[in-house]
Amino acid sequence: MLVLLQKGGIIMAVIIFLFFIATVIIIERLLYFRKIRVDEEKLIARLKSALEKHHFDEAMNICENNPSPIANLMKVGIEHRDYSRESIKDVIMAAANLEIPRLEQYLTSLGTIANISPLLGLLGTVTGNIEAFGVLGKFGAVGDPSLLASGISEALLTTAAGIIVSIPTIIFFNSLVSKVNHIIIRLENRVNDMVVFLGGKNNAL
Question: 187 near 69, Cβ under 8 Å?
């Protein structure tokens, strides 16, 4: 690590720093999605059973003990169960809109790291080559060509490092974005079911 920092300079240090940031974000997001993963069909069945018996406190406890976007929406719906269907739908949609930023948290930063890492690597290579050829121009000739080759190879390290950081970051970014999109689609499909499920003040459960 220290050798890479010495050879790559400040740009290599920035790339390594971005690598650690990306790693932290990926781990945090994976743990978050693992935490909110629930069996939706089983959860809905339990809630339906409790609500049919008008055990609203039990239904609220089920939602609180199964933290997930779907449970959060059901909790909001249960809290507004005495409202009309349109009002219930509005509060559930509002709650769904609040869930989306939580699902997408840090993903913009992860995408940015994936995009700028290879560019930073290229910048490091360009500046390194400028420095290497600057030495060549200063002295007019290089007695040992291997010295110039060594300087260029060191400059290319930043490009390699940028690509190495970018590839897995892009893979995880695309995977996480796909996961978020699937969750959002499921939530959108569930909203009308929840409204019918909860009923409203003019509808029996």
Answer: yes
Alpha carbon 195 to chain centroid distance?
A: 30
For the segment 118-145, what is each residue's pLDDT rounded down to a tens digit? Answer: 999 988 888 877 766 665 555 555 555 5
- Domain parsing of the chain, residue ranges: 2-198
- pLDDT digits 0-9 by tens, 12-40: 889 999 999 999 999 999 999 998 888 87
Look at the chain and count its residues: 205
Q: Could you read off the pLDDT of 63-89 as tens digits, one per residue? A: 888 888 888 888 888 888 888 888 888
> Could you give the count of Cα atoms lying within 13 Å of 53 in the half-sphere of its Cβ?
9
How far apart CA 18 and CA 111 sit, in angstroms, is 11
Contact yes or no for 62/46 (Cβ under 8 A): yes
Q: Is 14 exposed, middle or buried (0-12, 13-18, 19+ CB in 10 A)?
A: buried
> How far is it, in rounded angstroms, from Cα 49 to Cα 76?
18
| CB distance 165 to 113 below 8 Å | yes
Are 155 and 9 in contact, with CB atoms under 8 Å apart? no
Q: What angle do CA 73, 176, 102 make, to 5 degrees?
A: 35
- pTM beyond 0.85, yes or no: no
